[in-house]
Design goal:
- The complex is a heterodimer of chains A (about 110) and B (about 110).
- By secondary structure, chain A is an all-alpha fold.
- Chain A has one domain: 3 helical TM bundles of succinate and fumarate reductases (Up-down Bundle).
- Helices cover about 80% and strands about 0% of the residues of chain A.
- Chain A has 4 helices and no strands.
- In chain A, helix 1 packs across helix 3 and helix 3 runs antiparallel to helix 4.
- The radius of gyration of chain A is 17 Å and the shape is elongated.
- With about 110 residues, chain B is mostly helical.
- Chain B has one domain: 3 helical TM bundles of succinate and fumarate reductases, CATH 1.20.1300.
- Helix content of chain B is about 85%, strand content about 0%.
- Chain B contains 4 helices and no strands.
- Chain B is elongated and about 45 Å long.
- The relative contact order of chain B is 0.14.
- The chains are: A mainly alpha (about 110), B mainly alpha (about 110).
- Chains A and B meet through helix 1, helix 2, helix 3 and helix 4 of A and helix 1, helix 2, helix 3 and helix 4 of B.
């Protein structure tokens, strides 16, 4: 629940978790449709993959990978708070989340480049 | 959120925590040096482990995403009631059908 004050780190964490989740929910059906082009053969899937070489598409992909990493790490934060006996340190968790997302995004860019 | 939805959301989240970590690692490995349909299908075609892993992944997503969207919509808008639940149930079915279609596509292709 987003009940923290707008100035508190918990609010930022909850907002980022929701926004990344919405982005993923919008992207997922498109991702599934793209993969399903393989039903028409490898050439059809390759035609789609050719689009992903466009810089704008590649940048969007990088943002989506970052959104996935963001949503996962902030989701782990919620599970840890709710199910483990952990006293929350939101700023430290957010910093760790940002580091993980940065690492995944950078690795994606370096590998995709 | 009802207790059943809360439980479904949290159980699917636990499954997804593992599945997404594996998926992210796979993405970073797969895109290294370029990505072609042949590369993808060589890994997925006839691979039962892949098929089962991504079937579980898709099922978890089909539960997790609509419940999460329901929470966000109820918090940020005044939309409530059976119409919201019906739309999100349709989203769940659509994600399950589209997701499994994609998994089957790269498994049999």
């Amino acid at each position: 629940m987003m009940r923290a004050s707008h100035k508190q780190p918990g609010y930022v964490a909850a907002l980022l978790h929701r926004l990344s989740g919405i982005a993923l929910a919008i992207f997922l059906p498109l991702h599934f449709l793209a993969l399903a082009t393989a039903l028409n053969g490898a050439a059809a899937l390759d035609s789609f993959l050719a689009i992903t070489h466009e810089p704008l598409v590649k940048a969007s992909e990088c943002l989506l990978v970052a959104a996935l990493a963001t949503h996962m790490t902030l989701g782990l934060r919620i599970l840890a708070i709710e199910f483990l006996d952990i006293r929350e340190r939101t700023v430290a968790v957010l910093t760790g989340c940002a580091a993980a997302v940065f690492a995944v995004g950078l690795a994606f860019l370096l590998n995709a480049g | 959120m009802t207790a059943a939805l809360f439980l479904a959301q949290r159980i699917s989240a636990m499954v997804l925590a593992l599945a997404v970590a594996v998926h992210l690692a796979t993405i970073l490995y797969a895109i290294h040096g370029g990505l072609t349909a042949a590369d993808i299908l060589a890994r997925t075609h006839g691979n039962l482990g892949f098929f089962l892993f991504y079937s579980v992944f898709v099922a978890a997503v089909a539960f997790h995403a609509p419940i999460g969207l329901r929470n966000v919509i109820r918090e940020w808008t005044s939309w409530r009631g059976p119409s919201l639940d019906a739309v999100l149930a349709a989203v769940a079915v659509a994600l399950l059908v589209l997701g499994m279609r994609a998994v089957i596509a790269v498994y049999v292709a």
